[in-house]
Amino acid sequence: MSIQRRELLAALGTGATAALAGCSGVLGNEGGDPGVAGETLTLTTTTSTYDTGLLDALNKPFQEMYGVTVDAVAQGTGQALETARNGDSDVVMVHARSLEDEFMREGYGVNRRDLMFNDFVIVGPESDPAGIEGMGSAADAFAAIADAEAQFVSRGDNSGTHTKELIVWEEAGAEPGGNWYQETGQGMGEVLNIANEQGGYTLSDRGTYLSQRSDIELTILVQGPIEGGPELLANPYGILAVNPAVHDNVNYDLAMAYIGYVTSPQGQQVIEDYTSNGEQLFFPRALTEDPDFEQYVPDGWSAESEE
Amino acid sequence: MTLGTRAVTHGYDDGAVFEDVSLTAGSGEVVAIIGPSGVGKTTLLRLLALFEPPTEGEVTVDGTDAWTLGEDDRLALRRRIGVVFQEASLFDGSVARNVEYGLRVRRSWRERVRDELRTLANRSALPDAVTDALDVVGMADDVHKHADDLSGGEAQRVAFARALAYDPDYLLLDEPTSDLDPRNTAVIEDAVTAAADRGIGVVVATHDMHQAQRVADRVAVLLDDSVIEMGPADRVFEAPHDERAKKFIEGELVY
Amino acid sequence: MKGVGSHAVLVVLADALGALPLRPLLTVFPDVAGPLFVDFPFETQYVTSIVYVSLYVSVLAVTISTLVSIPIALVVGFSDFPGKRLVTAVINTGMGFPSVVVGLLVLFAVSNQGPLGELNLVFTKEAMIMSQFVLATPPITGISLAAVTSVRADVRDAAFALGGTRTDVALTVVKEARYGIATAVLAGFGRAISEVGSVLIVGGNIAGAGGVSKTRTLTTAIQLEARQGRYGTAMVLGALLVALVLVVNAVVVRLGDGGTLR
Predict the structure, then answer these.
(1) Per CATH, which fold does A119-233 belong to?
(2) Is B92 an interface residue toward C (CB < 8 Å)?
(3) C11 CB contacts (<8 Å, ≥6 apart)?
(4) Other Cβ atoms closer than 10 A to A180
(5) Is A269 in contact with A280 (CB distance < 8 Å)?
(6) B63-98 tens-digit pLDDT
(7) Any chain C CB within 8 A of the CB of A73?
(8) Residue of chain C nearest B49, judged by CA positions
(9) Do domains A40-118+236-306 and A119-233 have the same CATH topology?
């Protein structure tokens, strides 16, 4: 065929391709897929949360709904928040209210929601050398352990559990230290193993303890609030989005969609239904008829107190 | 065509190895450099092989100072020279692979890649030059043997073929037979003569007077830091001009 | 280097392992491991995806590292340049450099806050490859350096004298030193695939909700199990890792020999 006709056909072909390309994905979607399809949400959370396996169950429906991938990175509370501060994650799920508050005050976290809670328990050997069994006050129990200088194994890693442990020591008016107090810098599972082998006490989240119960000989000596124990041992979880004003690269849309999902009736049901070894591990907390303003701001914040 | 040195002095940090050495080898002639061990024969041969520039003086190929040329030109000159060391210094591979080394490096990269692929597909034939060179030293039947499986004499013969395969204009041999038995020595010496007959200019460094007598057309005596005697082989051996040369030759020829 | 005995053993092992049908073996795992006293609750897909990530990251890192290391070894071994002593010192120090520190440095670099933030490499296999590259290069370079400098000078001279360019001489040296270089590569691979700390920091140990690994390697999976106190499962994964290393060693040695015993 002649050169001119070839050029015309080529031009038509290019034009058609360009037009089709414009239609499919680049400019926008006409009905059907949500705008976030194909994207990845980076969620940083604590090792104890991750190790319960909750996230696999919780994230699957979300991934299917939106056609996205959730990358859950288990890092430990301090590291999870630090990663978010660096803008390397989009949403954070942790259980250390004081650290979450700090995160918000520094401007890194927005839209905090209460997500769920479980509790801590104080576990130890059946012989109970410090005599804390059945005590109604966690602080008193810790004080007794300190007095008896009984073996205590600590996470020692700035995790949510460790943060709670330090709060209880403070309440007890005791400074833990000396040969009987071991800071291991390890995860909860390993700490339970160490305490088991040494016949020592430790503070554990109920979920990890339950999943290891068959392998260790420690028993619950002081219950958490779920089973009627002291409120101090409550373990509330919060979820926060990383502030897009500080890091413009974070996937804020998807983070908000995720928070919306996990605090929705569907998400909260998944949380409630999740069991390990036949026991429920988490108790949903996001949905309340009465307003819960405290979840949105740092503990004790009020407009007047800022002046 | 000649390969040679002109007033070359060479030394290292601790002093000169030799001074003011001039000698040339022309097409088809065999020049023997004789002298005691350690006098600098190897150093002189390395200069002729264009390994490094002399401290003073010139190394000339066909009259041109090789070290005034650019790298590429000097490489071209080097490629007209074949070298056989005292140790065979074979590569870790088959006899064929060793002998065709010189041919291989002279081909373009594209050709080399194609050759390798053909070898891997077992569809390559040995170049004639390889078999011809091996014929000269009587090793044509051992073409697929591995270098490690050769005796000292066989290895040296292969080393000779390796230097011969790319048809050089000059051949340098550094004490080529000092570790060999008489039979292999004879093979090498015959090969030297055959090379000279082909028109190759040969320089042989040796401490074996009898060998020099057998193969050389001209002889240079390297003694006490310089060439103290040079000339036709017969004349140098029968009537050396220099007293020290005379003493040396007579001393060596006792055996 | 060319001991017939050791090569024979590895060749036999490679043949034996090659004959094993690996995929069916993995599905047998849960059944076999179960009654054997360990709980092996994993799907085949999970395990194969972890193995894939381990190999992908380590093999790529070692390949790139080798391509960089061999020229460096040749330059350091055979030429003089200002700062040569410094380079040699860096290589030697690098061999013992704490790997978790490398992980931190790579994290700082690829983090959103860091110089390479634009590339979005945090928690990706590519960042893991970077950190393993940094870890594998010193041993590969150092051992290759020892191997190439132990090539006899007269062989090098022969390659030069017979009309080879500097590149030809370098190629000849590499060929002569190939067993030592293979050792170097295996050493680098060993260091890479055994890495835990740095790949955990830069990769995040991510596995999708469906049980497919994104940045989870055998080593970080082992760490995950151990952290939860599941040492039995961790040991099974560990055995798998050891088997993998043995197979890779056997394959490299086999390639180096070209299939024949020397």
Answers:
(1) D-Maltodextrin-Binding Protein; domain 2 (3.40.190)
(2) yes
(3) C250, C253, C254, C257, C261
(4) 16
(5) no
(6) 889 999 998 999 999 999 999 988 889 999 999 999
(7) yes
(8) C161
(9) yes
Q: Give C119's DSSP letter.
A: G
Residue among C122, C204, C228 minimizing CB distance to A189: C228
Touching subunits for chain A (3+ Cβ pairs under 8 A): C
Residues 6+ positions from B253 with CB-CB distance below 8 Å: B209, B210, B237
The count of C-alpha atoms lying within 13 angstroms of the C-alpha of B235, restricted to the half-sphere facing its C-beta, is 10
Nearest C-alpha of chain C: how many angstroms from A190? 5
The residue in chain C having the minimum alpha-carbon distance to the alpha carbon of residue A44 is C204
CB contact at 8 A, B161 and B194: no
Question: In chain A, where are the structural domains located?
Answer: 40-118+236-306, 119-233
SS (H, E, C) chain A: CCHHHHHHHHHHHHHHHHHHHHHHHHCCCCCCCCCCCCCEEEEEECHHHHHCCHHHHHHHHHHHHHCCEEEEEECCHHHHHHHHHCCCCCEEEECCHHHHHHHHHCCCEEEEEEEEEEEEEEEECCCCCCCCCCCCCHHHHHHHHHHHCCCEEECCCCCHHHHHHHHHHHHHCCCCCCCCEEECCCCHHHHHHHHHHHCCEEEEEHHHHHHHHHHCCCEEEECCHHHCCCHHHEEEEEEEEECCCCCCCCCHHHHHHHHHHHCCHHHHHHHHHCEECCEECCEECCCCCCCCHHHCCCCCCCCHHHC
For domain A40-118+236-306, give the fold.
D-Maltodextrin-Binding Protein; domain 2 (3.40.190)
Contacts of C164 in chain B (CB under 8 A): 101, 105
Any C CB within 8 A of A217 CB: no
DSSP result, C28-49? HHHHHHTTTT------HHHHHH
B-C Cβ pairs (cutoff 8 Å, strict): 53
A44-90 pLDDT, tens digit per residue, is 999 888 988 899 999 999 999 999 999 999 998 889 999 999 999 99
Q: Which of C113, C208, C227 sits opposite A190 (nearest CB)?
A: C227
Query: Chain B contacts of C163, Cβ < 8 Å?
Result: 75, 78-79, 81, 102, 105-106, 166
C259 pLDDT band (50/70/90 cuts)? very low
CA distance A208 to chain C (A): 8
**Contact call for residues B223 and B245 (beta carbons, < 8 A):** yes
Q: Is B160 on the interface with C (CB under 8 A)?
A: no
A212 → closest Cβ in C205, C210, C229? C229
Which chains pack against B, by 3+ Cβ pairs within 8 A?
Answer: C
Q: What is the CATH number of domain C4-257?
A: 1.10.3720.10
Whole-number CA gyration radius for chain A:
25
Nearest-by-Cβ selection for C164 from B92, B105, B148: B105
Return the pLDDT at A299: 87
| The pLDDT value given to residue A37 | 83
Cβ contacts of C147 within 8 Å, gap of 6 or more? C73, C177, C179, C180, C181, C183, C184
Residues 37-56 of C with CB under 8 A from A: none
* B83/C161 Cβ within 8 A: yes
Domain range list for chain C:
4-257
Is the alpha carbon torsion for C79, C84, C89, C94 positive or negative? Answer: negative
d(CA A237, CA A95): 4
Shortest Cα distance, chain B CAs vs residue C150, angstroms:
14
Domains and CATH numbers, chain B: 1-80+169-255 (3.40.50.300), 89-167 (no CATH)
Beta bridge partners of A203: A122
Predicted structure pTM score: 0.81
CA-nearest of C100, C81, C93, C74 to C198 is: C100
